[in-house]
Automatic annotation (TrEMBL):
UniProt keyword annotations, A-Z: Signal
Region annotated Disordered, chain positions: 266-285
Annotated organism of origin: Geobacter soli
Lineage of the species this protein comes from: Bacteria, Pseudomonadati, Thermodesulfobacteriota, Desulfuromonadia, Geobacterales
Protein name in the entry: Cytochrome C
Coiled coil: none
Residue ranges with Low complexity bias: 267-277
Signal peptide: 1-30
Length: 285
């Protein structure tokens, strides 16, 4: 028996003695100590657990020390409860090592996530893994806890990634990306041309230099909703010219050039089909 333990046992005996003297009963010391130990006594020897329960006990405030610690040494040695005594019937309660995350049972919602965690999260959240697997990307192979290292915390994309251009902020990222399916780029009507221009400088330059009416249209007015969507001219203009005329020409671009650089009437006249322009454009992106 080591010294610390001996001193502790002496303390317990002292309690028993004190209890006996106070109450002046003739019964055996040990039995008396156990019989008379009440909730208010615990704090006399254990200051931390009662303080923890009081400050952050959450649901465990609803129960007493005794509900979990049914007995006390030296009478009873087995007074540390299993979580499963009270928590059962959910997938979450079948996990191993409850106290690996709920590190202090007296403050059960102070949760520490250490190491690489995915499967335990799935006992409560299913939508995110479905998205990650359905829309495969390099995020699919990360652990949930690589991004959410504190429960409930949402990381900034810019914590791990550079924006596409210097002034772009975290708030912009979600206009186009969702964390659990980052490659599925979808966006609304509010995206400004400069957000596209970060990668499509040529399109922006052509459009802003153009004098045709497309100049005033937003990229996303034509390239709607999903990245790489390309509209047909007819989807907006229907059939503006008679069919016999169109029959002689392959595409609208034969005369009008490309959407970003409309009506460069001179180009086809030089004997160089305007179609060549978008082809070149495409390669350079
Ligand atoms: C007179 C002081 C005293 C009081 C009052 C007291 N304890 Fe203890 N308690 C001790 C000591 C000393 C130990 C350490 C025993 C050991 O390590 O062998 C201990 C150990 C414990 C343990 C750990 C047991 C283990 O197996 O590790 C728990 C749990 C505990 N007490 C709960 C309580 C609760 C609940 C109360 C109030 C109902 C309480 N104690 C009241 C002195 C006290
Ligand atoms: C929900 C159940 C639960 C409640 C309620 C609870 N405890 Fe505990 N307590 C535990 C568990 C589980 C452990 C073991 C912790 C460990 O192994 O680290 C423990 C450990 C202890 C210990 C020994 C380790 C330490 O932290 O010092 C003491 C003393 C203790 N509790 C006292 C109390 C007191 C006093 C109360 C009432 C204010 C109380 N407990 C309420 C579950 C509970
Ligand atoms: C003696 C019964 C008992 C034991 C043992 C017990 N709990 Fe609880 N626990 C409760 C009760 C009662 C609640 C409150 C449930 C409610 O509010 O509906 C609770 C709530 C919780 C909560 C949610 C707190 C909140 O406010 O939302 C967590 C987390 C928790 N327990 C974890 C644990 C862990 C981990 C263990 C094992 C170390 C454990 N419990 C052992 C009875 C117990
Ligand atoms: C990987 C970490 C982790 C492990 C392991 C873990 N939990 Fe949890 N637990 C959590 C998180 C995160 C929450 C959500 C807390 C919140 O709602 O803020 C939670 C919530 C709870 C709750 C309250 C909500 C509910 O659904 O009832 C209880 C009770 C609970 N856990 C008990 C347990 C028990 C019992 C074990 C062991 C069988 C365990 N936990 C293992 C992380 C964990
Ligand atoms: C016991 C069930 C439980 C477990 C296990 C759990 N969570 Fe939660 N989680 C919750 C609850 C409940 C909320 C609060 C939901 C709300 O506010 O709509 C939450 C909230 C979150 C949020 C914030 C949601 C928001 O809208 O701000 C994130 C992120 C999160 N959890 C990630 C995780 C990760 C990652 C894990 C695994 C390490 C995990 N959770 C484990 C129950 C759990
Ligand atoms: C904790 C760090 C972290 C956070 C936070 C994070 N990512 Fe990532 N992301 C990564 C890693 C690591 C990769 C893989 C890089 C590699 O292998 O080149 C990646 C890859 C990507 C990819 C390329 C996917 C592929 O399969 O090619 C995109 C797009 C992306 N992230 C967007 C985002 C967005 C948008 C956010 C915010 C919603 C975000 N990321 C938040 C770490 C993170
Ligand atoms: C690359 C970093 C990253 C990874 C990996 C990741 N998340 Fe997220 N999570 C985020 C970001 C950022 C948000 C904020 C919403 C957004 O940007 O789409 C978020 C939001 C959430 C939310 C809030 C509700 C929602 O869906 O928007 C929950 C819950 C969540 N994540 C759980 C998980 C779980 C569970 C896993 C593992 C299966 C996981 N996350 C993996 C970064 C990540
Ligand atoms: C206007 C829409 C849009 C916005 C806003 C946006 N992205 Fe992107 N992002 C994209 C597109 C499109 C891709 C390329 C997808 C592909 O290659 O198919 C991409 C690719 C990525 C990649 C993969 C690597 C790369 O550079 O190709 C990362 C990482 C990324 N974005 C992070 C971010 C972050 C961080 C933000 C916010 C600062 C952000 N994105 C804002 C549309 C956007
Ligand atoms: C992070 C860089 C990035 C951003 C931001 C970005 N794109 Fe792209 N975009 C690309 C890449 C890479 C390609 C593929 C180029 C290739 O295949 O040669 C592409 C291709 C396209 C294509 C051509 C599809 C095809 O079939 O030829 C269109 C249209 C397009 N993007 C429109 C947009 C619009 C509109 C925006 C703004 C909402 C935008 N992009 C934002 C990187 C980006
Ligand atoms: C998403 C709808 C949309 C698509 C797709 C579209 N346009 Fe337009 N176009 C417009 C709008 C809006 C105007 C301006 C009408 C006005 O102000 O009267 C316009 C104007 C024009 C004009 C008149 C230009 C001027 O300056 O007078 C021509 C020619 C034209 N479009 C040709 C085309 C061709 C060719 C294509 C395909 C390469 C195309 N458009 C694709 C919406 C579209
Ligand atoms: C009036 C509708 C319209 C507008 C506005 C528009 N585009 Fe386009 N875009 C098209 C059409 C139609 C095509 C297919 C090629 C063609 O026929 O002109 C195209 C092709 C593309 C391509 C693939 C070929 C290439 O030129 O690289 C990219 C990338 C692209 N657009 C990006 C953008 C960006 C970025 C903006 C905003 C600066 C934008 N577009 C504005 C209609 C439009
Ligand atoms: C043979 C050359 C040629 C072809 C092919 C052609 N157009 Fe035109 N388009 C013209 C000319 C010339 C005008 C009249 C220009 C003017 O009035 O300034 C015109 C005018 C237009 C206008 C403007 C009408 C207005 O009211 O201002 C639109 C829109 C248009 N064309 C769309 C298309 C579309 C869509 C296609 C493909 C289906 C197409 N064009 C094919 C030569 C052509």
């Amino acid at each position: 028996m080591n010294a610390v333990r001996r001193i502790r046992l002496i303390a317990v005996s002292a309690l028993a003695l004190a209890a006996m003297l106070c109450l002046g009963t003739p019964d055996s010391q040990a039995a008396q100590a156990t019989a008379k130990l009440v909730q208010d006594d615990c704090v006399k020897c254990h200051t931390q657990p009662p303080a923890d329960v009081a400050s952050a006990g959450a649901g465990h405030k609803k129960i007493t020390c005794f509900d979990c610690h049914a007995g006390h040494r030296p009478q009873s040695k087995n007074n540390i409860p299993q979580c499963s005594q009270c928590h059962s019937g959910k997938k979450h309660y079948e996990l191993a090592n409850c106290m690996g995350c709920h590190t202090n049972p007296h403050t059960p919602l102070n949760i520490v996530l250490s190491g690489n965690i995915t499967d335990p999260c799935l006992t409560c959240h299913s939508q995110q893994i479905t998205q990650l697997k359905e829309f495969k990307s390099k995020h699919t192979n990360l652990y949930c806890s690589t991004c959410h290292n504190v429960h409930g915390k949402i990381p900034a994309c810019t914590q791990c990634h550079k924006p596409h251009y210097a002034e772009q902020t975290q708030a912009d990222c979600k206009k186009c990306h969702k964390a659990h399916m980052p490659k599925n780029v979808v966006y609304g009507k509010e995206v400004p041309n400069k957000d596209c221009g970060a990668c499509h400088k040529k399109a922006v330059d052509l459009l802003s230099a153009s004098t045709a009416k497309h100049k005033s249209l937003a990229c996303v007015y034509c390239h709607q909703e999903k990245h790489k969507m390309v509209p047909t001219c007819q989807s907006c203009h229907g059939t503006p010219h008679p069919a016999p005329m169109m029959a002689k020409f392959g595409t609208c671009g034969d005369c009008h050039s490309i959407a970003h650089d409309l009506n460069r009437w001179s180009a086809p006249a030089k004997g160089e089909p305007a179609k060549a322009a978008p082809a070149k454009d495409k390669k350079k992106k």
